[in-house]
Amino acid sequence: MQKSVNLSIIALVLCGAGCATVAYDRGVEINDDELARRLNAKLEKLFPQSMRAVHRVYLKALGREIVLEGYVLAKRPGKVRLLAKGDIGGTVFDAARAGGKERVLANSLGLRESWIKKGALRDAGIIHLCGDFRGTHIVRHSDGSIGLMSEQKKGRRKEYVFSPDSRLIGYIESFGDSKRYEIIVSYPEDPEESAAEAQPGGRPKIWKIRDYKLKYEAKINIISVTEANIRDELFEKKPDAKRD
After folding, report:
1. Which of 104, 120, 224, 231 is most buried, by CB atoms within 10 Å?
2. Please, what are the averages of pLDDT over each run of 10 residues along the chain (244 residues)?
3. Total domain count for the chain?
4. CATH number, position 157
């Protein structure tokens, strides 16, 4: 009974819709090809080429907050799979992206597929496939932060944001002067992590997401990341395919 109640709350939270934006500081473009090269290289080294990861996700929408467990497979270029479970068990959804196509493989609660594909699956890709990103422009924002930017169609921008000392601090998607989506990352100390990760410039452990268009917030705690040789077919599995 308790599992059913919790999954019903998840369905209510994730089926809400809305659209909002906030002002965006477009910054000043600077010509620094060497800095762009170094920042692209940082993103490429942030996560393994092929990996498994476990997330603890705190999701807030429509005034409610729920907890999910996320199990991620990711492989560059362009492949990611996300299985989400409720905090007391039960699959919420299973989705994958490969070859530029997104598939919902399981959706036990009948959630909006647009949220799964353009929200949760997109979040996992921004984090674990950041090594695919190729920024071509550098912008300096009024707060001193540096954006490694890729200009999209019709005035849209995507950028990973770095501190003045080139440490990753976030990610932004914008349209014109409006911010549509942002992430702020942090690096809490963890006595179990490697010395390399514990130093400034290591791998962020917490990714705080705000989607102003889909109107949700999420805090993703990365519990573990393991380099692994993931078979390509795991990203292509059809909804009726037999599970491993």
Report:
1. 120
2. 43 49 82 94 95 94 84 96 86 92 89 89 96 92 94 84 94 89 85 46 87 92 95 76 41
3. 1
4. 2.50.20.10
Residues 62-81: tens digit of each pLDDT: 678 889 999 999 999 999 99
* One-character DSSP codes across the chain: -HHHHHHHHHHHHHT------EE----EEE--HHHHHHHHHHHHHHS-SEEEEEEEEEEEETTEEEEEEEEEEEETTTEEEEEEEETTS-EEEEEEEETTEEEEEEETT---HHHIIIIIHHHHHHHHTGGG----EEEE-TTS-EEEEEE-GGGEEEEEEE-TTS-EEEEEEEETTEEEEEEEEE----TTS-HHHHSTTS--SEEEEEETTTTEEEEEEEEEEEE----GGGGT--TTSPP-
| Residue ranges making up the domain that contains 222 | 14-235
Count the Cβ atoms, other than its own, within 10 Å of residue 229: 8
| Predicted pLDDT of residue 197 | 45
**1 occurs within a structural domain:** no
d(Cα 117, Cα 55) in Å, to the nearest integer?
17
Give the pLDDT score at 190: 54
